[in-house]
Amino acid sequence: MRLQNRILFKLHEVHLGICKTKTRARSLFYWKGLDKDIEEYIGNCAVCNKFRSENTKDPMICQEDPNLPFEKVACDILDYGKDTYLVLVDYYSGWLELNYLSSKTSSQIIKILKVIFSIHGIPKQLVADNMPFNSNEFQNFATDWEFVLTTSSPRYPKANGLAEKGVSIAKSILKRSDEGKVDKQLMLLEYRNSAIIGS
């Protein structure tokens, strides 16, 4: 196997897609035709072709931009197969947290959020869909930990667009991990280590 093919294999091992793979490759390597080789390599990837989505854009909902990482975060629940995950996305950096939930109860979500907050700090604002985030237990948690809880309209869940995008990315990571037989945590690590396109 020629060296360039080995590099392409390692760059694309976690199936991040053409744009992220190009960005990562350009920061580490150069050879004539690098972009074309990446496009061709990924274009022939069975895992990526199976999960390739149409790049349709929903209309943007205007949100006030935070000034610091983890000042404002979005949160949602993802059901994947028999498993349930808590997805949290930082508005400032796009950092993605994906944590397994043993149940969808407020107490289980609070337990996971306490761990995340102990690592990244307590946000000023958490944006979430309604249940179970609007329960009394969760509202007490927000009061005790001194952050503002903003819930989106039940009739318009896209108001929490960043969380919905995070769920979409997390679902893609889980699907590609299962299909490509790559460790989910390794895929999450590689996603976090890649540039966010468009920022």
What does this structure look like?
The protein is α/β, with parallel strands linked by helices and 199 residues long. The chain is 45% helix and 16% strand. The chain has a 5-stranded mixed β-sheet with strand order 3-2-1-4-5, with helices on both faces. Helix 2 (18-28) packs antiparallel against helix 3 (34-43) and helix 7 (161-180) packs across helix 8 (184-192). The longest helix is centred in the last third of the chain and has 20 residues, at 161-180. One of its GO terms (molecular function) is nucleic acid binding. It comes from Sipha flava.
Radius of gyration: 18 Å
Point out poorly predicted stretches: 55-62
Shape: elongated
Numbering strands along the chain, what is their spatial order in the largest sheet?
3-2-1-4-5
User: How does the helix and strand content classify structurally?
Assistant: alpha/beta
What is the helix tally?
Answer: 8
**Percent range for β-strand residues:** 15-25%
Order of helices and strands: HHHHEEEHEHEHH
- Number of beta-strand segments: 5
Query: Fraction of residues in helices?
Result: 40-55%
Structure characteristics:
199 residues, alpha/beta, 5-stranded mixed beta sheet, 8 helices, 16% strand, elongated
What topology does this entry show?
Blueprint: H1 3-12, H2 18-28, H3 34-43, H4 46-51, E1 72-80, E2 83-90, E3 96-101, H5 106-120, E4 125-128, H6 136-144, E5 148-151, H7 161-180, H8 184-192
Parallel strand pairs: 1-4, 4-5
Antiparallel strand pairs: 1-2, 2-3
Helix pairs in contact: 2-3, 7-8
Enzyme class: transferase
Protein name: RNA-directed DNA polymerase
Pfam families: Integrase_H2C2
